[in-house]
Amino acid sequence: MIRDITIGQYYPSDSRIHKLDPRVKIVSTLLYLISLFTFKSIIGYALATLFLFFCVRMSKVPFKFIVKGLKPIIILLMITVVFNLFLTPGGKLLFHAGVFKITEQGLRTAVYMGIRLIYLIMGSSLMTLTTTPNQLTDGIERLLRPLNRLNVPVHEIAMMMSIALRFIPILLEETDKIMKAQIARGADLESGNIIQKAKAMVPILVPLFVSAFRRANDLAMAMEARCYRGGEGRTKMKPLVYRSSDRIAYGIVLAYVITAFVAGRYIPFKIWIF
Predict the structure, then answer these.
(1) What backbone phi and psi angles, to 5 degrees, belong to 159?
(2) Where found, per UniProt (predicted)?
(3) C-alpha to C-alpha distance for 181 and 203, rounded to whole angstroms
(4) I need a labelling partner for 250 at 20 to 30 A (CA). Which of 69, 99, 194, 258 fits?
């Protein structure tokens, strides 16, 4: 389960998506995620599905590698869908058994919310799988550069976000090693009720926190040893420059956003199933 988390990992390839400017991928991902919450009909989600599959195909990242990142959120996904299904009133009553009611509005909301969560994880994973941590740092810093006029430490913020993303797979790997070590010593992490399972996690969380603080201290010492003093006056070995392919990518994303927004919001959804 832990190894299935793909956010923060990088998949090396020579695809066109990998070669795009990181600013293009960050902005495009944000626009895609925002568009998911503007649709009112199933046609909008159909266009979002086609666009996502198109990007996955262009990235040359195995589809199974992206889908397995959904396994850790299955429980959260199920809880969200069930709550929206039974607790959303409105519309025609489809099912009634005791206190449980399923309405047309509840069914529509549950389906849409499930699709949004799935595509949110897949879209975010695709961005991190095709962008190195250094590229993410440079892209975020350039996008937030106007905030420097307000004395906002843009470089430090971008650095912290990049380090946090980079540490996700490292800490997951460390957690997996600790769990296997505890199981080899006879620890029972599966049986028992919720309270007993929570207590069984203590021998895992304590060494994990110790390891995390040790890694953070080592990183800080390494940065000080290399005379790191923040972003002021620093130059880039590979400065970010927009190319023609980046402008074409912006055009494709804007065309998708406009088309999906208009089709998914203003076409009467009564003619669709949901």
Answers:
(1) -65, -45
(2) Cell membrane
(3) 10
(4) 69
